[in-house]
DNA sequence: AAGTCATTGCACACTGGTGTGCAATGATGG
DNA sequence: CCATCATTGCACACCAGTGTGCAATGACTT
């Protein structure tokens, strides 16, 4: 069924998020299915990753479109707060860029990187974000902060803490960051 | 010779720093030696990692002792600037905590974590660092910032940028962080 | 009832990394 | 010159993960 395929993708996102080295077997059993079935939907591990990336790009584009459709004077800070959750959801892909299929992933994920860098760049130009690092690197860093928090074994501090920290790292003064973070 | 053993350790630190999944063969050839020779010095991969950890703990203790021996009113900020380089040098070990021998590594590296957490805790108590996250997590985050920068493909921005970013994330106002960072 | 289709259970081949055994080589120092 | 010892070069066994082939099962449709 098509449900199965979706469930595998969903579970793979979780499992690989926990451990990027998880094998097809582990993903399969976590999805309540046999290894062979996974290969039925995704001929190779890379195919599965590709499917994951397609979803990632799609969701990211959706969020960007949604935000762009809203008020023009939406603060960059709010923008950040909306974008990070999505990038966190697909954090595996970022982690996997250093691995075997790194080139492929880096290529397909490049546009997202550029979007984030663009975002931060505009924030810097608007004088909201600090300028001690290039925009591309700064966005990667803020991203890193988000999923470092998510990966911590404390579940009590959620996306709000991540957002505040990201903003701090981006150079937004603490008082303002705390005030702007949603939640 | 003993040189060989040292060289292997040194090279392993680099190679694994680039790619934590690098095999014994890759480490060996990078050290200009044959795989078999590595096994001569370190019976298993885990043994090699243990040796790496011993070094890490030793160096970290040395830095802490050095700083403690200096003036009592050394600012926390300077303290941070001195500690991060060491933790960055041994970044592999942090990365490897999520892997196969994660438990072992986590155990032997725990004391360092606690030291860093302590450091940040005292910074928070002194009112220098922000309080939006628990000390332990905050120190991990600042650490993450350091080696995210080091891992970037831009070699021009070094430890100064990393320090500034760490300080920003810790909640130190931008102007002050820039002023205090060495370099 | 018949047919379609996803899933399953096994068996298999292949790969890449790990760790070991052993004889040969070669430098170093007494 | 001789002995020692690190290093080397193979060969090997072993394991875990990947990907494939194929027949059997079972549910859902018409």
UniProtKB/TrEMBL annotation, chains A, B:
<keyword id="KW-0804">Transcription</keyword>
<dbReference type="InterPro" id="IPR036271">
    <property type="entry name" value="Tet_transcr_reg_TetR-rel_C_sf"/>
</dbReference>
<dbReference type="InterPro" id="IPR050109">
    <property type="entry name" value="HTH-type_TetR-like_transc_reg"/>
</dbReference>
<feature type="DNA-binding region" description="H-T-H motif">
    <location>
        <begin position="23"/>
        <end position="42"/>
    </location>
</feature>
<protein>
    <submittedName>
        <fullName>TetR/AcrR family transcriptional regulator</fullName>
    </submittedName>
</protein>
<keyword id="KW-0805">Transcription regulation</keyword>
<keyword id="KW-0238">DNA-binding</keyword>
<dbReference type="InterPro" id="IPR009057">
    <property type="entry name" value="Homeodomain-like_sf"/>
</dbReference>
<keyword id="KW-0175">Coiled coil</keyword>
<dbReference type="Pfam" id="PF00440">
    <property type="entry name" value="TetR_N"/>
</dbReference>
<feature type="domain" description="HTH tetR-type">
    <location>
        <begin position="2"/>
        <end position="60"/>
    </location>
</feature>
<dbReference type="InterPro" id="IPR001647">
    <property type="entry name" value="HTH_TetR"/>
</dbReference>
<feature type="coiled-coil region">
    <location>
        <begin position="46"/>
        <end position="73"/>
    </location>
</feature>
């Amino acid at each position: 069924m098509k449900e199965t395929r979706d469930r595998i993708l969903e579970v793979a996102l979780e499992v690989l998020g926990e451990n990027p080295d998880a094998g097809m077997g582990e993903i399969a059993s976590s999805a309540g299915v046999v290894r062979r079935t996974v290969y039925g939907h995704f001929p190779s591990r890379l195919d599965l990753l590709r499917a994951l990336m397609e979803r990632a790009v799609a969701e990211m584009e959706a969020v960007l479109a949604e935000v762009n459709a809203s008020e023009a004077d939406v603060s960059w800070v709010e923008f950040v707060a909306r974008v990070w959750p999505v990038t966190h959801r697909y954090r595996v892909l970022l982690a996997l860029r250093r691995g075997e299929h790194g080139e492929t992933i880096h290529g397909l994920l490049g546009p997202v990187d550029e979007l984030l860098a663009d975002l931060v760049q505009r924030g810097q130009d608007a004088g909201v974000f600090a300028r001690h690092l290039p925009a591309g690197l700064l966005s990667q860093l803020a991203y890193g902060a988000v999923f470092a928090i998510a990966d911590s074994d404390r579940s009590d501090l959620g996306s709000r803490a991540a957002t505040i920290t990201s903003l701090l790292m981006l150079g937004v003064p603490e008082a303002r960051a705390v005030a702007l973070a949603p939640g």
